[in-house]
Design brief:
The chain is of the alpha/beta class and 136 residues long. It contains six helices and five strands; from the N terminus they run βαβααβαβαβα. Strands 2-1-3-4-5 form a five-stranded parallel beta sheet.
Length: 136
Amino acid sequence: MRIMIVDNDEAWTRSLTILLNGRGHEVHPFTSPVSACEFIRQIADSGFLKRANLPEAVVLDYVMPEMSGFQVLGRIGDALGPGCRIVIVTGHGEQLKNSRLTETGVAACMAKPVDLDELERVLGGTQHEEGAENEI
């Protein structure tokens, strides 16, 4: 599965990338939401064959300095297509309590630390074997 991660926390993004790559996913990590938006726009504007390279899932931080996850979705949501699974993650779990993001097409909102098996389940991927480290 092609997964794009957009999170300003470099260490978390790097760790999640390594873990998802280890489970067989193609991961495109971004610590800048602006760069992530540019990446999606370049693919979306480059023709039919390149559109096949769009992510099938996006793991998106809710709170980032340059723009919020909701603002990122506003910029790239139409380019991603209806089949793309969006998961919002945040280290500020209390913000998700009142969030109505699932009403905007977001598959799930998850507080960090994220259980890797649960994240894969929501994204539509396969779960990893028991006994592996599951929280990131």
